Amino acid sequence: MASSFNETSTDTKTKRDYESTMVGVDGEKLAVEEMNGRERQIEEHGIQKFNRLGWKRLTIVLVAEAVALGTLSIPSTFATLGMVGGVITCIGIGFIAIYTSYIVGRVKVLNPHITNFPDAAQLLFSKFGCGRFGYELVTVMLGLLLVFLGASHCLTGTIAFETITESNTCSIVFAVVSAIILFLLAIPPSFTEVAILGYVDFASILIAVAITIIGTGVEATKSPGLSNVNWSAWPKENITFSEAFIAGTNIAFAYTITLCQISFMDEMHTPSDYMKSIWSLGFIEIIVYTLTGALVYAFVGQDVKSPALLSAGHFLSRLVFGIALPVIFISGSINIVVFGRMVHGRIFKNSYIRFINTPVGWITWLSIILVTVIVAFIIAEVIPFFSDLLSLMSALFISGFTFYFPAMMWFFLLREGPITTPRNIALAILNGIIFLLGLLILVAGTYTSVQDIVNPMSDSPVKKACDACRRRKVKCISPHPCKQCQSAGLVCRTSIQRQRKGRQGQTANILTELRSKENEQVPTRETNISSPFAVPRLESLTTPQSPQVSERCQFSRAPGLLSHGLIDACSEYFFSRMRGTVPILQPNEFRKHIDLAGKCLHAYCLVTALCAFVVTQTGFAVDYDASDHFVNFSLEEFRASLIAEATEARKHIDPVTDPVRQSIIIAFLLYGCHIGLGNQRHAYYFLREATTLYTASALDDQPSSRQADDDPFEEGKLFWLLVISERAHAIRRHRPITLQVTTESPRLEDDPDSPTSNAGFLCLVDLYRPFDETFLAQWNGTNATCSIESLVQLQERIQNAVPVDLDLPDILMADLRVSQQWLRIMIWQLSTTAGFLSTSPAHACMDFRHPLQIAEDLCLATWKLSKQSMETHGIGLIEKLFEVACTLVDVMACLSVAGLRSSGFKLGPQDYLKHLCTLIHDLPGGRRRYLPLLLTKIRQTLPSMMEPITIHLNLQPYPVATSSIAGRETLSPVVSDRISLRGSLPESTSADIHPGSAPGNWINGNFNYAEMSRIGDKTPEIDEAFLQYTSYFP
């Protein structure tokens, strides 16, 4: 693939930068950790709001945008090209549009930080050293085209109202009504909300097309009859290049899928599904366009009008326009929304205001939409040759968005390996043809459109348009009778005196006046404005596909990042401490990857990802000889460099080519890295990529992926590791799952080389196996069928999954015991939601005090374990402890004072809570991330325990002091909430404000609180305002 985008870092910020840097109320940039609680809450809500679009709704939005009234203009192109030429053009351009959409989507997948087409253009133009210029150029192109498309829909709506009502109302009134409707429909900023309207739009256009086809067929059965319809399989006689070219470009413009594709993809919750939407839309368009064009042309013949509904008779044209009103306005509003999102996102690029969930956000959003609609209204009403100007802009801009920009993206952003490989030669020829086709449309289309605008000015001394052309807003060509009136069968005349105050009385309605005075059909080109330019948009996301990789791709490795000391230390730590719970590699297999890392990009990416995984997940710091490039780097900066290097290397390899198993492992390791950082969206992205690759049966289809010395047990372990990780993540974050356990799933057999680790992993599998789609549907509230018996059986199964007398190393037992008790808490929470708990239940697990027993079991298990054994499992284990502790606090709040204390020699709930707080305090990452939240939970729910806990943890309040955070003077409003370590750190130094510099706090710096879902919706919430005080915890 082409070289990385490091040299243009000033032009393009990574998505991680966007999510870790926000803008405060005063406009000053703040790190996410320095945002107050309200800002974090707004940010989290915004992320959820704009991350809900699935591929099915995306398909509906695309159909609403693409398959508009332009469908009814396709039959006229068949009349020009003939039946054979029309069918071939529709199908051929349709598949080209699908392919170019795949290219644009692939660019988005490999560069998740881009949010719209201008960002992708900046990435492309940066290869020529002018990234900023490309960004601004495409921004102007896209903005102008979207505004003009909105104007075309406003004008089409006006014409539709005039056609339907045939009233004497001034057409300006209908234009204003159309603009108001566009404004109201464009208010929702989320495409997920727009998708709801898309169902109406889709049904509307299908009914309109069906009525048109049936109506023209009925008309054709009349004189002279179907047998005498003058349709032809070949182009019409004496066809000119200009006529054929215009007919072809009308079809090409109707297939414009890529224009807003990246904008849609940025809102998908599962980007890997984007090709499902592309294929669905592509086939819908091909079928609808081809059938509509062929059938209507066969029924009407060479006399077919554009739009085709005018060939169905006066009544049916009114009926179809009425049915198609949702199509006109919903499709137009989508153009307005995309333009508004682009402008709004640019204004508040790094601010939480960009999510449009604050008063400032809504005010600016409504202002942008209102101004855009007003400008579109003015353009549609004022410019006399608007349709030709729109044709010019479409030739100038759509040719790039659909054809030559995607082709250039393949050559400069997606091509992998030398151009001389057979695959690259074939793709180069294909993309070269697409590029030349785009240039042809650009040059010839622009020339034709300019000539259409200029010719009337030079060929004719006409000083003012005739009445019909002036009212239809088309140019008046040549002396009277003008070409427009001749082609439409109208009488061409010019009024002696033009009205000065708008159209009034009987002349208010164009169609009424023209029909009554001339007894002719309404002109055709006027209503064609929305047709060839109904630009589709595509937001699909990700099908892993990319050309073949080789080391000669232009990926630039960071010099000195991976030293032999680092690799050896991380691999030794991984295989000695982590392999039992992450059984995805063997030592000898990994050693081969190390040897190949200098020559193979797959191997280099895997080695880098594993080092990043070890350092990020556990905070394991190694001593090695750093190069001059990294000698002054902190551990946090070095960890970020490792993740960035692995991510960048992964962009240059094809995940579905050999070796696929390595691609799955790399995706899983990057998932673990982002879990360690708290970047939940990034983590979920890589987890879904790993499970999707496995679900696609890539391993089965490519036996060459298996190496000669592969462990026969590794494939089964990889599957079950993905199952465990996906289900644990689904419970914590309320996500869907991909992998299903069936009779065909790989079996876990006894591993003679590692019987102890295999036994522990088998128990871990047994823990998570019952949490299938049925449980998750109940957990997420989508399935209300839940019984006490099923939950009791599930509790018993989890309780028995790990034998009491199981003898395993502490590292394995730590994960097993903590996961077991955490899952028991999750089941109890579901029982709470279902209303199954009571004070005197038939089953002990249905007692509302059951978490006390779970906490006791957890404490007894962890007291036996070493701290080092729990540190190995990273932040995921701490989060489980935290969730158990929060549930324990809620139950303790319902107990009497006597019930909280220990009795005799038996420990009580207070002791369990102190122990859990100690674990969270002592484990790396817990003190900074979860301890502040837990203490606030205790203070709000169980205030009597605050003093015993702070004394037990050796914490104490310290006096109020101003502290500089990101250059701003901040004063804590609550003195009692500020806590510092006694003895662990010096007195109130900069380490109090920037704890990332303190020893042991290896993961404090870039944690994204806005993306952290504490324990989902099933546990009581913590006051988010507390988050503004977290900077005072060391």
TrEMBL record:
Keywords: DNA-binding, Membrane, Nucleus, Transcription, Transcription regulation, Transmembrane, Transmembrane helix. InterPro entries: AA_transpt_TM, Carb_Metab_Trans_Reg, Zn2-C6_fun-type_DNA-bd_sf, Zn2Cys6_DnaBD. One of its GO terms (molecular function) is DNA-binding transcription factor activity, RNA polymerase II-specific. It is found in: Membrane. It comes from the Eukaryota. Residues 465-494 form the Zn(2)-C6 fungal-type domain. This is Zn(2)-C6 fungal-type domain-containing protein. It comes from Penicillium olsonii.
